[in-house]
Amino acid sequence: MSMSSKTPAPNVKRLVLVRHGEVDLAMFNGKKCYYGGVDIPLSAKGRDEAQAAATYLAEKEEITLIWTSPLSRAVFGAERIADVQKVDGVVRHDGFREVDRGDWVGLSEAEIGAETLSKWNKGPDFAPSGGGEALATVAKRVLAARDELLASAPPGSTTCLVSHMWVTRSIVADALGLDTENDTSELQTLDLPTASISVVEYTIDEKDGKTVTEKSVTYVGRKPSTEASAGDKWGG
To answer: Which of 37, 87, 112, 154 has the most crowded Cβ, counting Cβ within 10 A?
Structure first.
């Protein structure tokens, strides 16, 4: 994984992936539990983390397009980046929502059980009851939305996507060549603290200007420094 310049090569589309900041669990009485696609707000620390990510990116990247999950915790971070980068408008796409936890919403790891969680992490088709999503299902919708994002970005440009842990894991895993359809066990090994930044580059065929010929990962889970802690690596 190499360092990147502020702008990509003329035949490359760069995607900067930002996870949202720490959330406020007040709606669950402060309980550390799963929430997934529930629209839960950022904590004060999470808002600071989002601003730190925006400030960091101002120094490192020249961003021309910004996409986001429609959930407010991601939209906040996207808007901070848009302000700093002076980008007009943020594209909200439902395909970048966090995983739906179904009946697991509000439950802790202990309440769900280690064996059940292991089945979900390792089994691409294992889904929680109550409309929850399996990891392969999440990856399929996320990568379809990713393709829409890339189609909108001209070669030589940088797009920022602010979203969630499992959204970012799906995109990074695909770029690393990991299996997102039949064996999702390696996705959980990707370390993504809150408000961390990852960068993926897509080399485009110079003849048609569209076809992706190569994917590369510059870095994963880089956490901009703040006065607060290093960030929560656990994701609900």
So the answer is: 37
Alpha-carbon distance of 172 to 175, in angstroms, equals 5
pLDDT tens for the chain, 236 residues long, are 445 689 999 999 999 999 999 999 999 999 999 999 999 999 999 999 999 999 999 999 999 999 999 999 999 999 999 999 999 999 999 999 999 999 999 999 999 999 999 999 999 999 999 999 999 999 999 999 999 999 999 999 999 999 999 999 999 999 999 999 999 999 999 999 999 999 999 999 988 888 999 999 999 999 997 655 455 655 67
Alpha carbon of 162 to those of 27, 133, 165, 195, 208: distances in Å? Answer: 23, 20, 10, 9, 28
- Residue 143 to residue 133: CA distance in whole angstroms: 15
95 neighbors 142 (Cβ within 8 angstroms) = yes
Q: Which two tokens stand for residue 182?
A: 């039949």
